[in-house]
Structures are given as C-alpha cells and as structure tokens.
Amino acid sequence: MSRDVWNGAGRRIHLQEVGMRDGLQNEAAFVPTGEKIALVDALTQAGFGRIEVTAFVSPAAVPALRDAEIVMREIARREGTLYGALVPNVRGAERAIDARADELNLVMSASETHNLCNLRMTRQQSVAALSEVIAFARPGGTGINVSLSCSFGCPMEGDVAAGEVLDLAACFIDQGVQGITLCDTTGMAHPRQVAPLVAAFRQRWPGTLLTLHFHNTRGMGLANVLAAIDAGADHFDTAFGGLGGCPYAPGASGNVCTEEVVHALELMGYDTGIELAGVLAAAARLPALIGHETPSQIVKAGRRLDLHPPPPGFEALRERVAARSR
Question: Are strands 103-109 and 14-17 parallel, antiparallel or unpaired?
C-alpha cells in the first residue's frame, strides 16, 4: 500500500448505503414500514448519493422486505440521490420500475457452489436469467448494476480465480450495464488480493462504474477499503450500524459499517459528502427496531474527539497533586 492512501487530500469517495436492504433482509424482526421510510429519509438527509432501499423479491422468501412497494413509493426523494433496489428476475424488475426505482441491482455469485446454494441455479443459468432482466429494463432507461457475490472467495470452494470474476463481469458489461459490484460476501478478502483485482478491473473497463462491497467478518473490512482506494476504487457499499451477513458464513458479522468508514476516511482527509452525525443518529435507532445491538463501534464508543468529563473527584485529585509539588 502506498503512502498516498494515508492522505486523502480532499479526494471524493462515494458511499452507497445498503443497510436498508442487505442489512434488514437478514433480521428476524420486521421493521415497521413507517420506520423504514423514516430511516431512508434520514439517510437521504445525511447526504448519500446512492441508497439501496429494498428488494423486490418473494415476500415468502424475505418477509422482512414484504413492504418494498410502499417503502419505495413513499420515501422523500432528493434530487441527486439515486434510489435502487435488488431484483432477482423480470417480475421483480417490473415491480421495482413501477415503484419508481432509479436503479436495479442484479445478483449472482462468482462461485458455482455458492450460486447453487443461494440461488438454486448454475452460474450459466444465472447469467441467462439476469440477461433477460437487462433486456427488459434497458430500453426504459432504468439503471442496471450487477453484483458478483463471492468475488474474493467462497466459504465452500475457497479462492475464486480473478479471471473467472472478470469473465463474469465481461458478460454483463458487454450487455451495457452501467456498473459492476465486486462483493466480499463472506468476509474472505484481504488487502493483497483486493488491490490487484481492483487494478485489473479499472484497467480493463475504465468507463464502467466499479463498486466494492466488503464485509467485516474477519475484521479486515476497513483495511480492504483502503487497499481498494489505493488501487483506484472510489465507490463502496456500506451499511449503517454494520448490519448484514450471509447464511453461508457461520458467525459472520455484517457489511463494513457506514459510520466507521466515514469516520476513518474523514480523519484521513477524504471527502465522503456524508454528514456523520446524521448517520450516527439513524444507526442509534436500529437496536430498538431490530431487537439487538449492532456491531457499530462508533455508536458505542463515539467519534475520536467526542470527549468525556473527568471522573468524579478529579478537581480534588488535582489539588492534592498540586499541593505535593509546592
């Protein structure tokens, strides 16, 4: 990692908030629809340029997001913010477009085993299914992003070859999608792996929006963000509160935490355009809604310069120490 990564010098880093979808879909508790709308509105006010609001999937499969249409239609939209949604198929795309989603996020895995377990399809079948969605949505002008799960490793296969990841990306870039997200779905990425894959992607497709989606399963989330920045990346998925996870990674923690990433990058001189206080306020509301604490260390410990008063008896201690020195 070069020294330049430690000095952001005002360089803009773009964060997409994905906690409303990738986080809440994993929660057993159903967050009331009105609370979801209020959270999205709070994240909008905090300054995000992209928010993944929900997923248009079967309510039986993901009951936590069964109110997708209502949430997407009733959020308070801000000019300049893109509101996206995950869709699994053409029917999901129809629902999302009807509810005014600005962007569709399509997902498949770079690992054959993970794709079979997660989507019940081979990778070849997934490419064909997602190509149908692209053909349906592109003529209407809706933005399309494809997320490749397990781009940095599969918990059942191990390492996934970089060439396989790039070949899959090519399948969709050749069809005209606007963006590709490389996902560390189960937190297997490490900086020496991240940097060359990001550099190879940026060199091959400089005009395609590249987003990195890291999980903090093994505590390397922020290190991987910095390695990706050093290799030329400037778009990242993050989740407020550190929400998220994967059913095929036992013990896995969530996505890299929005407030932790914003806090760290701002201290290093990067410009995220995010109001940290607004994200912290939204994240602080989560435990009461989901029924448990979140992984966010910034919510628990505060920002670096959130100072605390000295302990009781401090003034008397100061006087005693001063008296001994007279």
Answer: unpaired
